[in-house]
Every structure is written in C-alpha cells, then in structure tokens.
Design a protein that fits this description.
Length: about 150
C-alpha cells in the first residue's frame, strides 16, 4: 500500500508519504514491491480539499480587487471581477466535487480492505461504479492507428 498526495496547494505538499524498509532507493522500491509499504501523514477530507479550492478562488478574487499581484490591467480586472460576480451562484461546485471525490475514494478503500481481509484472495478489480465495471473495451483494445489526413 502506498500513500499519495492530491495536494492542490503548496501548504498540503508533503503531508502524506509512504514508508518502506530500505536505506537506498532500490531497497525502498523492493520493500514496496514486497508489500511492506505503509502510508503516513494526514488524510485529506472534504473540508481540506474544498478549503484549498476556496482559498485559491479567494486569492484570485482578492488579486482582481487589487489585493495581491496585479497581473492584469484595469479593464481585464474589471471583466474578471464581473465574471466572478456572475458565477457566484456556482461557487458551491468545488465543495460538491470534493465530496464526490472523497465518497469515491472511501468506496475504493472499503473494497480494497474487504479484498485484503478475504480468504479467497481473488485478483482485485476495483469498481468504477455504475455500469463501468468491466466494459468490453477494457478487455482488448484495438491498436492505435493514426488518422489519415
């Protein structure tokens, strides 16, 4: 098992990591391949992901209002502020996306946990939800062919 960072801002980078025995890169990778890796660090939540997204949005709007970097001229800033105001009713979207992502992650963790604790040890095939489980296209794909011009 390995940990991963889905950091979207610098303050979250490096808060999740994987440990495995080994003093060198190669020994570390061997440990991972042997299943000796252990995740460490903080697990992101809906609120941390949404908070990061809203932090970026807030910094952007503040910069447009004149607080922070001034990369745009006054006319472009005014246009961007107008767009931000018009899109205000849709500012709940990052929260919904974070909640959906975390729900999917939770399902995947539950599936993997169930698989690891099962006695049968059948090959693990994560569900993608809905009707997307094992589509025929996933079994055998036609080789890529360049389109003729």
């Amino acid at each position: 098992m390995v940990a991963g960072s889905d950091a979207h801002t610098l303050r979250r980078v490096g808060t999740t990591w994987t440990t495995a025995p080994g003093r060198t890169r190669d020994e570390f990778l061997v440990g991972l391949r042997q299943g000796l890796g252990r995740p460490g660090g903080w697990h992101g939540t809906v609120s941390t992901i949404a908070g990061d997204a809203y932090g970026v949005i807030g910094s952007y709007v503040a910069a447009l209002a004149g607080f922070g970097p001034r990369d745009l001229g006054p006319a472009k800033r005014a246009g961007c502020l107008a767009f931000a105001a018009v899109s205000l009713p849709f500012q709940f979207t990052p929260l919904l996306m974070a909640a959906r992502s975390k729900a999917g992650e939770q399902r995947a963790v539950e599936q993997l946990t169930a698989h690891l604790s099962s006695a049968a040890r059948e090959p693990f095939r994560p569900s993608l939800g809905g009707d997307a489980e094992l589509r025929p296209a996933q079994k055998e794909r036609e080789p890529f062919r360049r389109a003729s011009v």
